Amino acid sequence: MYTVLNKKELQRYPEFDNHFMVVKLFEPKVCLDGYISIHRQRQSYPALGATRLWSYSSEEDALRDSLRLARLMSYKSVLAGLPYTGAKAALIFSPNSQINRRDFFKAYASVVNELGGQFVTGTDVGVNNTDLAVMAAESKFMIGNGVDSGFYTAVGILDSILESLREVFNSEDLSARSFAIQGLGKTGGHLLKLLVKGGANNIFVTDINPRKTWYYKLRYPFIKLVNPVAIYTREADVFCPCALSHAVTAERIPFFKFKIIAGSANNQLESVQAGQDLFDKGILYAPDYVINAGGLVSVIDEMENGKSDHERTLSKIKKIRDSLSAIYFSSKQEGQSTNIVADNLAEEILERNCAVK
User: Fold this and answer.
1) Binding residue per annotation — 3?
2) Which domains does the chain have, with CATH numbers?
């Protein structure tokens, strides 16, 4: 049900980074189609990365997404102080297909088993806990069914916001600052709660689902609801992208009135140049894969110890803030954008850790 792709054929994709292994999945009986990319191999450690089910516009888009996100998972892991490398599964959902989710994910779990423990996975966009339970019944290489990873991701984001406030304003007082949260899903909603608990009271929120925004408006009447497009031009100290990718684009940056960008979404920057543009504009960018590692930390704690422990997980998440502080310091010392500094630091650690480069 899978084929290992030839590395020479993959070199034409800019996202290919001499990945250790890329496999093509295909089982027409259950409409299974997609890719698993393993970025690096480290002896005695599996590669970790969630499974995404998405309506990709093409096979190539799915492949490139898996390649890009596998590399970012490696970066996320090592900068959180974890010994694992990164991977990603991008499964293709066709709206016209008659998919039986149970059969689909059972077949997918069988492929994960065939990889022999090189790849350990959990849920991402399009995959829910029911799907994960189906997969876990078929494969021991599934993680995250007993932990609220969205909450722990939000904890890491809050710590990073506090570090960013200290960097920019020399104060961590949430009540003195304004926030714009884009996306109130399982992480954005938790982040809103944590900000309010910490004293924040000047908060703009938006989500493409109006039921979510009104749900939180009823809980916190003081928050201000914003149109999804208008969030990019709000005047706020901290912008928190917690929805889909590419919130930060060349077209939007000139209109930004933020001092800090720190959110949970993956691939927030449309390009490497976007990070440089933020740096030139004086906007402090907290690299997404650095600060959104709390969920990964939580599921690894569960995997390594049999079940997750709240206090132990919180203690491990504190390393995220330490990494971010080092990145901010290096950015100032070297005069480089934070995304470049983070990439270079992650590559240095990977080169030391991995048997295969």
Assistant:
1) no
2) 2-138 (3.40.50.10860), 149-293+321-348 (3.40.50.720)
- 126 burial (CB, 10 Å; 0-12 / 13-18 / 19+) is middle
> Is residue 146 part of an annotated ligand binding site?
no
SS3 44: coil
User: Which residues carry out catalysis?
Assistant: 88
Residue with tokens 């496999």: 23
Q: What is the pLDDT along the chain (357 residues), one digit of tens a residue?
A: 899 999 999 999 999 999 999 999 999 999 999 999 999 999 889 999 999 999 999 999 999 999 999 999 999 999 999 999 999 999 999 877 788 999 999 999 999 999 999 999 999 888 998 999 999 999 999 999 888 999 999 999 999 999 999 999 999 999 999 999 999 998 999 999 999 999 999 999 999 999 999 999 999 999 999 999 999 999 999 999 999 789 999 999 999 999 999 999 988 999 999 999 999 999 999 999 999 999 999 999 999 998 889 999 999 999 999 999 999 999 999 999 999 999 999 999 998 888 544
Residues 6+ apart with CB under 8 A from 224: 203, 204, 205
186 annotated as ligand-binding:
yes
Q: Is 183 known to sit in a ligand binding site?
A: yes
pTM of the complete model:
0.91
Which residues are within 8 A (CB) of 109 and not within 5 positions of it... i.e. 6 or more apart?
134, 135, 136, 137, 138, 139, 142
